[in-house]
Write a structure and sequence with these properties.
125 residues; de novo design (two linked rop proteins); 5 helices; mainly alpha; single chain
Length: 125
């Protein structure tokens, strides 16, 4: 198995490309260097932390640590998306709804994946 087989990585990949395209085509120019830059970094962090955690999967605590980082980056990305919407830099309501739903789904799946790793790596008592 490779990290690219993980559904959470596949969703993170989609979120990365969708957010990147949104920041290039839908935001005002000044926002590309402000919140646009920040949201691109946070969404890429989700994917990167999944990959780094997968590389350390033999060590439960390390694996979980990076998965928790990925989940936190997902929350951060949602917050940046909300900021863009609240400040009226992102005016495409359908795009906002689609991206928000994608990130919400990713967050829920990350949470379930973290729970699964915790359960599978239970040490015998």
């Amino acid at each position: 198995m490779n990290y690219t087989d993980l559904e959470i990585w596949q969703l993170a990949r989609k979120a990365t490309t969708d957010i990147h395209k949104m920041t290039i085509s839908k935001l005002p120019k000044f926002e590309m260097y402000e919140t646009g830059s920040q949201i691109r970094r946070s969404v890429k962090s989700i994917r990167s932390n999944i990959v780094e955690g997968f590389g350390r999967r033999r060590y439960k605590q390390e694996y979980l640590r990076f998965l928790v980082f990925a989940h936190a980056s997902c929350d951060e990305t949602i917050d940046h998306l909300l900021t863009l919407k609240d400040c009226e830099s992102l005016t495409d309501d359908d795009l906002f709804t689609r991206l928000n739903s994608l990130l919400d789904e990713l967050g829920r799946k990350l949470n379930r994946f973290i729970q699964s790793v915790e359960e599978q790596h239970q040490s015998p008592k």
